[in-house]
Structure formats: C-alpha cells, structure tokens
Specification:
This protein is an alpha+beta fold. It has two domains: 41 residues, no CATH class; 29 residues, no CATH class. Strands 1-2 form a two-stranded parallel sheet. Strand 1, helix 1 and strand 2 form a beta-alpha-beta unit. The longest helix is centred in the first third of the chain and has 15 residues.
Length: 89
C-alpha cells in the first residue's frame, strides 16, 4: 500500500512528532511505501495567494477560483505546489 503522511508541527520532539515517527516506522516495517510532507520544515505557505502560481491572471486581488482554474489549464502552478500535487498522485 502507498501511504502519504502530511505533517505540520513546529516541534519535532512533541507528542505529534513522536506519533509522526512511529507511524512512518510502523508502516515501513509492515512493507508499505511511505511518502511524507513535513510542511513546517519545508516552510510551506498554506495560505492561498499569488505565490501559488507562476503566471497570475490578476495583479491586485487574488481570486482563488480564477487563478487555480488558469493554473490547472495552463500548467502554471508554482514549483512547491506541483511537488505536493505529485506526491498525492
């Protein structure tokens, strides 16, 4: 089985961090393929904005539906967004 874990916590020594490590270990030991995104470590910005696209339609107000439709149709999502999309695939 393929497993994708999304983790977003600033303290790797926290209980969440421990659960994150145990989940990876346990799943891998059981023979599963595990992919991980540690959003905090990556500095991933979870707030939608012009930084998500390389060729925005607008220039002042970010209209999420317009920008995402354009990026989907033209392949102009930012590199970090594409990398996360590929992990889900």
């Amino acid at each position: 089985m393929k497993v994708f874990i999304v983790y977003a916590h600033p303290d790797p020594t926290s209980f969440n961090g421990a659960m994150f490590r145990v989940a990876q270990e346990t799943l891998r030991e059981a023979g599963h393929e595990v992919r991980v995104s540690d959003l905090h470590e990556m500095g991933f910005n979870p707030v939608p904005g012009f930084h998500d696209v390389t060729a925005p339609v607008g220039d002042e107000i970010y209209q999420i539906q317009v920008e995402q439709k354009n990026a989907s149709e033209n392949g102009t999502y930012a590199e970090d967004v594409v990398a996360e999309q590929e992990k889900v695939e």
